[in-house]
Design goal:
With about 290 residues, this protein is an all-alpha fold. It has helices at about 5-20, 25-35, 40-55, 60-80, 95-100, 105-125, 130-145, 150-155, 165-185, 195-215, 215-220, 225-230, 235-255, 265-280, 285-290; strands at about 90, 95. The termini are far apart. The model has no long low-confidence stretch (mean pLDDT about 95).
Length: about 290
């Protein structure tokens, strides 16, 4: 089974269980709407890639960990789009969940997906406690406080925001969870994979900042110019377009150098480089000026 099929199958099983016959119909429909069709699935694909580079010794753990991370990412997007945060009407090229189903349902969808992520781990790994415990610890730390997604979102509520701390929490923490969870799912020591995840996460955030000012809504499937609209830190505003692009390239180099020794280190490096570079392909300073 290829990577995409593994991931989509795991996610479908989780959503089908959560949105069963006894679930309120609108909630069930909105949960599936929030997860399918997905975007690039960069985070869970990274989890799978690391696990496979480490031997993928227990595929059920890999698939459950990757799906849990994607469910949490989807939940964060639903909440991030709400009127109290970004008030974004578009996500993944279609109306955001609160636009399609209303604000109250969107709040509940985000909550339900967060819970479902950990339920999926518990259900799938009930007989594999040695893999379940580290995965729960790694993934939960990436979404709560003091350094997870919730903390990153909370920095937007502060009067002053430190760019590095903000982006490390809002974006880097979940990427670190991806690499660490992939290693843990394969029975490897996860801590050695933290640096790689943070470097990829920071590179991805810089790329996202570049796309926010130089990309298009049509290409990204979401509104652009959001950082300026909401007065949030942005790497292009801090370093200029060329400086931000250099920062991205340096972070990618750091990430590739941080891959720990493993059987599949070389192909993993090629995969990380290809996906990362695709994020900034076609962007230019001329677009910003326009």
């Amino acid at each position: 089974m290829d990577v995409a099929t593994r991931l989509e199958t795991e996610l479908d099983h989780a959503i089908s269980r959560a949105g069963g016959a006894d679930c309120p119909p609108i909630l069930a429909e909105a949960m599936r709407y929030a997860v399918f069709p997905g975007g690039a699935r960069i985070r869970p694909r990274l989890t799978l890639a690391v696990a496979m580079a480490c031997g993928d010794t227990l595929p059920v753990a890999t698939d459950a960990g990757a799906a849990a991370i994607e469910l949490l990412h989807c939940a964060s997007l639903v909440h991030d789009d709400l009127p109290c945060f970004d008030a974004a009407a578009l996500r993944r090229g279609k109306p955001s969940v609160h636009t399609a189903y209303g604000e109250r349902t969107a709040v509940l969808v985000g909550d339900a997906l967060i819970v479902l992520a950990f339920e999926q781990l518990a259900v799938r790994l009930a007989r594999h406690g040695d893999r379940l415990a580290p995965l729960v610890k790694i993934i939960s730390a990436a979404v709560g406080g003091p350094h997870g997604i919730a903390a990153g979102q909370a920095w937007e509520c502060e009067p002053q925001i430190d760019l590095v701390r903000y982006q490390r929490s809002k974006t880097g923490a979940l990427f670190a969870a991806c690499t660490m969870a992939g290693a843990a799912a394969a029975g490897r020591e996860p801590e050695a994979w933290r640096t790689l995840g943070y470097a990829i996460g920071e590179a991805f955030q810089v790329a996202d900042d570049l796309r926010d000012v130089a990309g298009s809504e049509q290409a990204l499937g979401k509104p652009v110019g959001q950082d300026a609209t909401h007065h949030r830190p942005n790497a292009v505003a801090a370093f200029g377009f060329e400086g931000a692009m250099r920062r991205f390239e340096n972070l990618l180099d750091e990430a590739l150098a941080a891959i720990p020794p493993c059987p599949g280190a070389e192909p993993l490096g090629h995969q990380i480089a290809a996906v990362s570079k695709s994020l900034v392909t076609g962007l230019s300073a001329r677009t910003v000026a326009a």
